[in-house]
Design brief:
By secondary structure, the chain is of the alpha+beta class. It folds into 2 domains: 4-50; 70-205, Sandwich (lipopolysaccharide transport protein A fold), CATH 2.60.450. Helices cover 20% and strands 47% of the residues. It is built from 2 helices and 12 strands. It has helices at residues 4-14, 20-50, and strands spanning 70-80, 86-96, 103-115, 118-130, 135-146, 150-160, 165-168, 172-176, 179-183, 185-189, 194-198, 202-205. Strands 1, 2, 3, 4, 5, 6, 7, 8, 9, 10, 11 and 12 form a 12-stranded antiparallel β-sheet that branches. A hairpin with a 5-residue loop joins strand 1 and strand 2. The N and C termini lie far apart (135 Å). The chain crosses the membrane at residues 30-49. Keywords: Membrane, Transmembrane, Transmembrane helix. It comes from Sphingomonas echinoides. This is LPS export ABC transporter periplasmic protein LptC.
Length: 211
């Protein structure tokens, strides 16, 4: 029967630093983590090249759903009208609530529209922008200024950026080179400086001063 002391001595020699067993353990400490990393990468990358579908099962009670699809500060939207002239719509903040509808809600909005005789500036407090129709619906007061002494003040209006037309939902006052006007509602062609008033239309012509 082998001596237990001799067996113990042989085990100590086999596990001693610098022995073959010690060198094997040292190699495995390096190789095993590398193999595990390669295997993990293979498991992740394989579905991308297999051509099959990858499915995920999520617990709806644990997944956080965003209430707003998009929310940005200092948003700018640019485009071109029917004549290819550029327009820009700027807002202090913009929120798109759902991808199902192309509506962006705007705060502190302003727009600049290119006209044949110069740009027109539009300023409003809040409203929403329909990206498909390129129309801005303004809630509350709205002011339009353009070169040549034209100015409109109205409220609850719809501005069509493509056709450069404005339809008011409330009373309007304005200034043109010939004088001032007012009415209950208005349809305006901003490009051609044509204003159509509906209800209690008033026009005050101011004679031009001669030198």
């Amino acid at each position: 029967m082998p001596d237990s002391g001799a067996i113990r001595s042989q085990r100590l020699i086999w596990a001693a630093p610098g022995s073959s067993h010690d060198r094997t353990i040292g190699v495995l400490r390096v190789v095993l983590p590398i193999l595990i990393g390669v295997l993990a990468a293979f498991v992740v990358v394989l579905p991308l090249y297999s051509g099959g579908d990858v499915s995920f099962l999520l617990d709806k009670n644990k997944v956080e759903v965003a209430k707003e699809r998009l929310r940005v500060q200092s948003a700018t939207y640019r485009g071109n009208d029917d004549k290819g002239q550029p327009f820009a719509l700027v807002a202090g903040s913009a929120i798109q609530k759902s991808s199902a509808e192309p509506i962006v809600w705007l705060q502190q909005l302003s727009a600049q529209i290119g006209l044949s005789d110069g740009p027109a500036d539009v300023v409003g407090d809040r409203g929403h922008y329909n990206m498909d129709r390129q129309q801005v619906t303004i809630d509350g007061p709205l002011q339009v200024k353009s070169s040549g002494g034209y100015r409109l003040d109205t409220q609850n209006s719809t501005l069509d950026l493509k056709s450069k037309t404005l339809k008011s939902g409330g009373a309007v006052t304005g200034t043109v080179p010939q004088g001032t006007f007012s009415g209950d509602q208005m349809n305006a062609d901003l490009e051609n400086h044509v204003v159509r008033l509906d209800g209690n239309a008033r026009l005050r012509i101011v004679p031009r001063k001669t030198r």
